Amino acid sequence: MENVHLALEEDDLYSGYNDYNPTFDSDALENDVGFQQAVRTSHGRRPPMTAKFPGTAIGARPLASSFGSRIPLTSSMGRPMTGAVQDGAARPMTAVRAAGYTSSMTRGSTFDPLGQSKGPAPPLETKNEDTPEEKIKSLEKKVNDLIEESCMAQSMGTLLLALEKAKEAGRKERALVRQRQQSGYADQINLDLTYSVLLNLANQYANNDMYPEALNSYQVIVKNKMFNNAGRLKVNMANIYFKQKNYPKAIKFYRMALDQISNAHKGMRIKILQNIGVVFIRMGQYSDAITSFEHIMSESPNVKTGFNLILCYYAISVKERMKTAFQKLISVPLGIDDEDKYIPTNDDASSNMVIEAIKNDKLHQMERDLKALAEKYIMTAAKLIAPAIENSFATGFDWCVDTLKSSQYVELANDLEINKAITYIRQKDFNQAVETLKTFEKKDSRVKSAAATNLSFLYFLEKDFDQADRYADLAMTADRYNPAALINKGSTVFVKQDYEKAAEFYKEALRNDSSCTEALYNLGLSYKKLNRLEEALDCFLKLHAILRNSAQVMYQLAHLYELLEDPQQAIEWLMQVISVIPTDPQTLAKLGELHDGEGDKSQAFHYYDESFRYFPSNIDVIEWLGAYYIETQFCENAIQYFERATHIQALETYKDIHRKFPENVECLRFLVRLCTDMGLKEVQDYATKLKKVEKMKEIRRVKSGREGSARGRREGREGSAGSTLFLGAALTLIFNCVGTTESDYEDFSKSVCLFCADSSHSGSSTRGERLSAKMRSLPASNEPYEASSPKELDASYVDPLGPQMERPKTGAKKRVEDDDFADEELGDDLLPE
């Protein structure tokens, strides 16, 4: 045990290599009888196994037994034995060399198992890039990089850059092919790389609307038999022919692609069949389209194909087939999970965490989008076929509602009934619309709020503000977070001139829906009424940031700057209005007024003249133009404008006469004639009234017989005399405005009397033959008042700006149009577009 040493924590970990097991102790070995006997025998005289390999682990070492001291012995080769000490150097007693230790290692040398003391490793040998193989690999890498850059540019919308990269990739690929051929590797051409280059180039040509070049590139791929499945690209070629409206060729290539796709690729075949059906619809061949769509609905139904099938049946007016197709549409499986899956049902924290994580993930979002798309198609189809499948649209709507109630889209039935009420509104049958909407008062809160919102809007339009206020309260009670209901409530308060309270309702609507532009617009109007112009300006500037091209918003900004006494800013905003609606006469007149206030008469005349050109019935504009011509000593031109003013005032006089005598035929005829010549939309209303009055009088004449005929003649004379009297009143007004002399008026009065007397004898066929010179100066029924510029009249004009701009919007969005951008529609949530 004296040779056994215990290692302590502070000892060197590598110490003890010179110690050895006592079993191998060679001390007093020469005194060991057994050992000496073995040495003297033939076994002991055998040469050592490593004697012929000098420098191995066998060497001189001290041999000893347990009876003597260590004696270094030498082998027969003269090499010291293992374990011997030479020149102060020692090594461990082992025949296996350990890492970091060599036979020449001395005591105190540094431990370096990794050989770091020898210095850094020599550098790697550089590849020779001049070899043909390296050149080919380099070119292939450049081509792949260019294809990738082209695709990335396309994804970012830079189509021209994508096309340039695709062309460069094509040039590099051709250089690569030449390099292979010159190097003798022609049999190693990379067909996949060539295919990728050509396909990407064709796609980029198509994206840049360079259809002939794209078709040529696709043809190169399709005609090359070395490319596998290249025939599928005929679908892309058919798509290009479809965009070019070359429908017969599109059908041909779609069918060629369909022939080259096996039945194993069912999804692709279905999509191609759907494209074929769409092309047949564009060609008007609905029967062929129906054949394609019916095959798809029998093999793999989807909502888009079902909707297209309904459109085809609607186009050929097949009622029963429309019903069948609608039933197929609502029975299409969507393959999505029920929403109840995402509602926590227990107290398990781990499962609730999983539900919370997947509630708004991309898969659930895709499911919601798919469901929304299906609901959109179903609602559109129902609204389309409802008036066509039955004798009345109400019966058709009822059938669609009953069908939806027995399907997976039960919640759409209530929305469809609301659309039924909206259809009544479009037909101006407000009583039926109100009755339909009132049936929702006992439904669930969401539907009840929507119906009450629409009822409030209807009563607001009818100026029944008490009922509008009542139903706005009902809508708010059912759903306090309904912004449309809050807007309607604010609007009813606004018309009662309680602008502070109205502003509070609009603010609450904005808190519930910060993107509600109607609430922000009406809030600006409320601040404007309260003379808080800076706050109103802030509201409309925010609204302008959302609705960049809204003429209403820009006009309100111009008006606010005018109120703030900043006419230059007002002019700039009005110029932006003109850039959006260049033909708006009221804005042009306002620009003329502002320039006139600034003393710029030339600009004022320009805008007033433009306003008159688009709407020659504005008395204020005509008055300013007439005064301008008088001021500039062009009295002849001033007379033309004042004559126009008299015509307009005559029209107003006839309107007053019609309100007092609504059944006067002659007054209605003059109104139709004047409105037609002046291009006013009221001509349709007056023409309808005229037909009704004439029909009523004709019925009276037929029924009364001879006595009735005599009475009819008397009525005709009285009506003629009355109308002549009314005409006299109107023309008296004209002469007073124009400034005729007393003799002219006497001639006119005589001609009127003569006209009245002659009409009582000769009947209506000769009434126009005895008019005076002043009477003949009126235009005929088929020509405008100024024959020199008949194209200056605008038949579709409605004054877009004026008092109605101050009326707040109800729970509805505004639709801006060229001729009337103050028209209103129901809210988005109640009347989807």
TrEMBL record:
Residues 104-133, 701-720, 760-833 are annotated as: Disordered. Gene3D superfamilies: Tetratricopeptide repeat domain. It holds the Pfam family TPR_16. GO terms for biological process: inner ear receptor cell stereocilium organization; intraciliary transport; kidney development; non-motile cilium assembly. Residues 818-833 have a biased composition (Acidic residues). It comes from the Eukaryota. This is Intraflagellar transport 88 homolog. It comes from Scophthalmus maximus. The lineage of its organism: Eukaryota, Metazoa, Chordata, Craniata, Vertebrata.
